[in-house]
């Protein structure tokens, strides 16, 4: 029996949709939303109807009948902390995302659009591995300041999916293995998966710098910078997220351009780029200690994992811990669809969202 699943992933200026038949992608398209189009809406939630209609129109134009769908899955938005895996989109989740989101973010629209489309055909809507998946060990929550407990903020969707893919490759269950996954993208996060639970992380603001984010910086110097009178709050935030990392040092977030500079003999570009790999390796080593070094595999994924230069530098430093698997790409649509397929096949049970 063929199972057809629609996956919806809203971003700040785009909505990506994909249709999967069983575990095979049969259609994928990114809808771009212009600044002029988005400026009409004072709140992100107000974009719901426009984005939903754009999704339905695109499906119709490409010959897809929503009546043939078995389920619809949306990118999990910024809810209060949730467990990993699938959640059924219900009225409580809709109310939270519409009226009281933790943060206004385009990903919140994923569940709303999925619910509306699924309800219209009498099917169930899901989210899978929300941005706010939190399975941290209690020890991992202690930061050193009671006012600032550590939070779970990590690329959970792609990281868990790639961990499961590696487990399948070696013929084991995800719940049998200890894995470290480094997601290498515009932001970099690293997660430790202990026997099927993401028990500790290195988030994108407490670990390696990345193409556009500063990562872990010296706290005292950051405080001095904040109170120097030279920058306002928005400007400091931008230095940390948006204008940090490779962009701050080299004026670009494009890893391919940086590698071209290195090939042309730019020693400073090589120093900075290798420093990013060095910090990723340190983060992997840091998490390995949580399970006494008993790691079955290290996974490098995300867009920059396509870089042989970067991944070879990381591999060289961490291969003594465990074998290194490289699965490049964001893989978000595949991760959403495969997650719901596991629910429909009975391999997983979807949770009911509760406040």
Question: What's the short story on this structure?
Answer:
The chain is built from 13 helices and twelve strands. The chain is α/β, with parallel strands linked by helices.
Q: How is this fold's topology laid out?
A:
Blueprint: E1 4-10, E2 14-21, E3 24-32, H1 35-38, H2 48-61, E4 71-75, E5 86-88, H3 91-99, H4 108-120, E6 125-128, H5 138-141, H6 156-169, E7 178-184, E8 188-194, E9 197-202, H7 219-226, H8 233-240, H9 245-250, H10 255-263, H11 267-288, E10 297-302, H12 308-318, E11 324-328, H13 332-344, E12 351-352
Helix pairs in contact: 2-4, 3-4, 6-13, 10-11, 11-12
Question: Please, could you describe this protein's structure?
Answer:
It contains 13 helices and twelve strands. It has two domains: 4-132 and 333-352, Nucleotidyltransferase, domain 5 (2-Layer Sandwich), CATH 3.30.420.40; 138-322, ATPase, nucleotide binding domain (Nucleotidyltransferase, domain 5, 2-Layer Sandwich), CATH 3.30.420. The protein is an alpha/beta fold and 355 residues long. The longest helix is centred in the C-terminal third of the chain and has 22 residues, at 267-288. Strands 3-2-1-4-6-5-12 form a seven-stranded mixed β-sheet, with helices on both faces. A five-stranded mixed β-sheet has the order 9-8-7-10-11, with helices on both faces. The mean pLDDT is 93. The radius of gyration is 21 Å and the shape is globular.
